[in-house]
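Researcher: First entry.
Model:
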Amino acid sequence: MTPTSDRSCDPRRPHRSRSRLAALTLSAALLGAGAPAAYAAFTGESGAAATAAAPQQAAAGRPYVETSLLFGTARPNGGPAVTDREFRAFVDAVVTPRFPGGLTVQDGYGQYRDAHGTIERERSYELILLRPVSAAGADDPKIEQIRAAYLKRFGQESVARVDDRARVDF
């Protein structure tokens, strides 16, 4: 048998993969242990206060209702998906006149089971409206008008609505 140049098979050399694994494990442990101290340095805390759980403070701001509307883009019966341009035009014509004070639109991807039991996967939009609790009741009909307009314009089965309480400060 001829000698081989593969050092990993040489019984006279220590097995390096175990020592490397041990070194990596030790490094990860030391980094993890140092995280609270690093966080404290970043936030300006020191000592035991840095590692103790921070007490919960009352949220700043006023009580609001955060309403999210989830708009799908796939059309029933295989029609072309709602485009970005069509959705922006919808927001400009239907949503903005009802909520001129502001809104947020986020791109998304979602899925749901349609009326025929098929799981539909589609690009989607999330429209977020923040409304003072005192105005929420008066705004509800406007939100329902937006949902109905989208269903009609784009032939959708539904537009999901989620309402949550929030504390908001601008």
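Researcher: Second entry.
Model:
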Amino acid sequence: MNVLLLDGHPEEGRLTTHLLDTYAAALPAGAEVTRVAVRDLAFSPVLKHGYRQRTEWEPDLVALAEKLDACDHLVVAFPMWWGAEPAALKGLIDRLFLPKFTFAYHVGDPWWDKLMQGRSADLIATMDTPPFVIRWYHGNPLVRRWKGQILGFCGFAPVRTLSLGPVGENTPPRNIAKWEARVAKMARSIRQKAPQKKQARLAAFLGKETNP
């Protein structure tokens, strides 16, 4: 199994990185693990032309696209700030999750093809608000958006989510041992919904696919 771990925290050495360390250590033997930190990538987070014209990828985005295309399972971890992911991670999704690579709109109807089918995903979000408040008072928009409008929209299935909090800026989390156990359990129980549907998509997207 090829597992891609994506660290969305702008600073190294934070809780997000520790949780991904825990996840990686708990993966089944034989898993092929690739780790990428958004903070280490050189790219513009601005999708300058929208979908009207392709904004060419920087070398780091090409390399990450190769890893995403190859993976069987994606793990994204980040802190929730102002109800969403950090800006660089949002920009990365804008630039990387493009039509004809991760999804494809139909012509003549409102539907689309989910080009990331055959891959699964886990989302780990830390937050200073207790998760039950986010669910009950705000309707859990962060999780609903990532699960339904980003990862699920592109075909990742199942998409499992883990919301961990509260995490204070200067207060170590009291429940860290429980959180580590939950993250480890997640890593030990990966299952793709339909692994036979996985197809490589990058070569066709880049126009490098050749006919036999």
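Model: Note on the second entry: The radius of gyration is 17 Å.
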